[in-house]
Amino acid sequence: MPGSHGSPGPSGPEENSEETEGFGFGRGRRGPGGGRRGGPRGFGRPGGWQQADLPPADDAAAWFTGRLPSDWFVGPATVSVDREEIIVSGELPPVTAETSGAEPAAAAGRISRFREESRAERMKIAAEAEARYGRKVAWGASIGGTRALFTHLSVPVMTRLRQPERQVLDTLVDAGVARSRSEALAWAVNLVGQHTDEWLASLRQAMSEVDKLRAQGPDL
After folding, report:
1. How far apart are alpha carbons 164 and 160 in whole angstroms?
2. Sheet bearing 78-81, strands edge to edge
């Protein structure tokens, strides 16, 4: 089974119909700009995609900072954005367990309580954000080293691999690191992300600047 070094864990996201109801991400639904919700039409970058059908989300972190209740988190929330989803997560006030060594359980209980007590307000904020940014909103919370993601997306990604690449995945499966090729691929992507965070951040920033300049150009 995958270990702690960036492993994807059990397959499939946690689901909660109360928090996903009404977001309109079913197959064939039209998103902002008239495009199909199944994903933006790709054009522009060779081998990549461009946010042709999606509203920009450059100000998402600022919007959530202003929109979230001030007493939810200790410090500003962390907001992560891609083309399908916005994940909003924050640190909850610390909790002290009465029994030594029980802090993780106490933290998990406090996170669970926050999830239930904030559900209605989170659904309302998520609906506003989806209308503004055209992406589903997922939530998370943490206390120290205890972190939980609530309902979130697990998006299939198709690719073609040659035999040497398939053998890498099969080695991970045979060694018990992953249960399937798809899980091995997710594990590998996670591992690459851990070791190239700074480079990937610089690359995303550079692409963002290119997109801004392209958007300022004349319409064809």
Report:
1. 12
2. 78-81, 85-91, 136-143, 146-149
> Is a pLDDT exceeding 50 seen at residue 66?
yes
**Greater confidence, 30 or 216?**
216
User: Which of residues 109, 127, 154 is at a domain's end?
Assistant: 154
Residue 142: what are its φ and ψ, rounded to 5°? Answer: -145, 155
Side chain identity at residue 204, one-letter code:
R
The three-class DSSP label of residue 61 is: helix
Which domain-ending residue is among 154, 172, 200? 154
Contact (Cβ atoms closer than 8 angstroms) between residue 136 and residue 88: no
- The structure's pTM equals 0.57
What is the mean predicted confidence (pLDDT) over 78-105? Answer: 85
Do 105 and 133 lie in one domain? The reply is yes
